[in-house]
Amino acid sequence: MTNESQVFTPVDLPVLPLDDEVVLPGMVVPLDLSDTEVRAAVEAAQAAARPGGGKPQVLLVPRIDGTYTGTGVLGTVEQVGRLSDGDPGALIRARDRVRIGAGTSGPGRALWVEGTVLETAAPDPLPGSAAELVKEYKALATSWLKKRGAWQVVDRVQQIDDVSALADNSGYSPFLTTGQKVQLLETVDPVARLKLAIQWLSEHLAEQDVAESIAKDVQDGVDKQQREFLLRRQLDAVRKELSELNGDPDDESDDYRARVEAADLPEHVREAALKEVEKLERSSDQSPEGSWIRTWLDTVLELPWTERTEDAYDIRGAREVLDAEHAGLADVKERITEYLAVRKRRADRGLGVVGGRRGGAVLALVGPPGVGKTSLGESVAHAMGRKFVRVALGGVRDEAEIRGHRRTYVGALPGRIVRAIKEAGSMNPVVLLDEIDKVGSDFRGDPAAALLEVLDPAQNHTFRDHYLEVELDLSDVVFLATANVLEAIPEALLDRMELVRLDGYTEDEKVVIARDHLLPRQLERAGLEKDEVALEESALRKLAGEYTREAGVRNLERSVARLLRKVAAQHELGDRELPFAVTDADLRGLIGRPHHVPESAQDPAERRTAVPGVATGLAVTGAGGDVLFVEASLADPETGASGLTLTGQLGDVMKESAQIALSFLRSHGAELELPVADLKDRGVHIHFPAGAVPKDGPSAGITLTTALASLLSGRLVRTDVAMTGEVSLTGRVLPIGGLKQKLLAAHRAGITTVVIPQRNEADLDDVPAEVLEKLDVHPVTDVRQVLEIALSPASARTGDRAGEKIPAAA
Q: By the 8 A CB rule, do 198 and 133 touch?
């Protein structure tokens, strides 16, 4: 094995500069002799060549940006003649590397330099690492050449075994830059040159693979688009042929344009629709905007812009419809009758539209559950001859549910108001906004605030939905809103509506409703005929009074349904013969015992007011009026308890009422002959039963005062007396709200005497006459009058309590 060695041979050669070109040993290059410097170098070489001394030699030196490199290549002039294009040229073969030295003199006009020929011999045989490099380079070069289709060159490369020649052969690679070729030229060590060639070839192959992958993906995408385009054009052609056969428009946009022009639309809506049709004509089939526009146009064309139902101006007939479908509710019936009467007169005098607005109505029906608020909306629509649509607002928290979504959102829809108009098929339906007091608000907006424009008679003739973005006239729509709790409706929204209270039904009204409406409906649902089962009035009255004590009739209907199911089941089992008339005596055997027994029906010793310190008050809840008991007790002086204790989940207002009641008695104890001096050593405890139910409000003031006066005097509060009213520190009885609901609750509970503030006496006009006939109502102005009415005579006082005798008031 011989080691690698270098041989240095000095030579003097004419310089043949190569501008921005590099020639490596082993390469054969044709040069154009029309270049002055090339001709001068070749002629100088020919002049210096000795006869028989071999071929002329030149020094091929790269000149990069006007600067010569430090290493050139010794080249022999193989042939001088003409190139393929006919110009004079010379064929030069590069031999060995030459390190350039100082300039020297020589024949001709060429530049002569001294140089040293660098001849490097590779070891033979090659070491393992060099042999592996040779194999690697040949494999890479073969792979690259095969991709280019240069099969002849592949064989030539495979035949090269010399390391130096193999490395220099990479100079033919077109992807190498001039700088990389210069680096190969100046690297003398053949193994190092081969490593550089392998590195650059590997990088080029990697880049080529990435480029081919990208090109393939792009080509696949282009092919897919072209295929899709071709198929769509074919589909359009087929549709066109079919449309010509059927006589339909050729284009979808033409179809929409024809539909818009043929539709009976308001002028501003037509202009907006035609603009959208123009956008549709300009958009491509693949554009998502096209689907948005088509959906919008479909929605606009489906709305009944000019459809209206004629109101039934038979005022007597409308009132008869309301009376037939609903018992009671005189306020609502009168309001609807007034509305129809005014509209009839306006229509007779040509005042249908004034200032762009019509005479729509916005009524808020507020009352406890089960009084018929929702079903009343259907009756109103029936009486007016209009379409009816119900919009459930309970739990709605998104403002877009009212005003609609912007069209750019995925799955955008118009708001519920627009959808209700579309569902009704007319521009003047009766729209029931159900449970408006249960509308919520969060980060998505406040739907109640969005309803302000909808329910404002001065604004809703130009209502603008976010999805439609065109004005919609809602001024002829009759809006009915239902709510259970008035306080839960925002004040600004309530200001837009006309309030109508539905405070509940009397027992007589419930009997009529059950007989005329509930019983026929439940007979049908139970599969019974009218002549098979009958409910006598005594049974209906007992169901309403003792089984379902409520403001509405929902539980009453459930009880009737349960009763009929029992009868139907017994008949199927063979235990009951039909027809059958249900009396009040049959109720216990069919549906069990009564759930609500009035205090007056109990034994006197078992009543709540059988001991001093218990008074009966009246309150209003979300379920209507209710009876409220107040209990008071005094702590024994020996326990050390003092002050006022309140229990029963009371609000701040009710706690203040208790403080005021106690303060009044302390300041007027001598006048009322009550032993209030001992209160400093004895704690007072006031309790409202049903502690799980929150209670608040000022109307229990006189009830608290009466309970404390009864406790201190030892006189019992009359069982048949209930009271409501606010008390002041001076003992004045101040007015309260919800009087009708409270009196209905007292009537349901079997109370016969009610104490109310005198300033609420005018509210008695709203109370049904049959209720007032059964109640002894006492309007009062001072709490002393309340005590005179509510407290039993002094002879009925209790005896020793807690070991101490409390003297009674005279």
A: yes
CA 303, 306, 309, 315 dihedral sign is positive
pLDDT tens per residue, range 549-562: 777 888 888 999 99
* CA gap 734, 786 in Å, rounded: 12
Per-residue pLDDT band at 248 (split at 50, 70, 90): low
3-state secondary structure 642-677: CCEEEECCECHHHHHHHHHHHHHHHHCHHHHCCCHH
- Grouping H, G, I as helix, E, B as strand and the rest as coil, residue 461 is helix
Rounded-to-integer distance, Cα 628 and Cα 695, Å:
10
Contact indicator for 185, 73 with CB cutoff of 8 Å:
yes
* Cβ-based burial of 399 (10 A; exposed 0-12, middle 13-18, buried ≥19): buried
Q: From the candidates 699, 710, 713, 792, which is the catalytic residue?
A: 699
Catalytic annotation present for 699: yes
Q: In 65-184, at which residue ranges do the beta strands (DSSP E only) sit?
A: 67-68, 71-82, 88-104, 112-121
The token pair at 116 is 């040293």
Taking only the tens place, the pLDDT of each residue in 571-583 is 888 888 888 888 8
Classify the phi-psi angles of 123: left when phi > 0, otherwise alpha if psi is within -120 to 50, otherwise beta.
Answer: beta
Helix (H) or strand (E) holding 203: helix 190-246
| Residue 241: Cβ-neighbour burial (10 angstroms; 0-12, 13-18, 19+) | exposed
Q: What is the pLDDT of residues 596-628, one digit of tens each?
A: 766 555 656 566 767 788 888 888 876 667 788
Catalytic residue among 170, 740, 742, 792: 742
Residues 438-480 have pLDDT tens digits of: 887 766 777 888 888 888 877 878 888 888 888 888 888 888 8
CB 98 within 8 A of CB 116: yes
Q: What CA–CA distance (Å, rounded) separates 745 from 619?
A: 9
Show the tokens assigned to 303: 């709305």
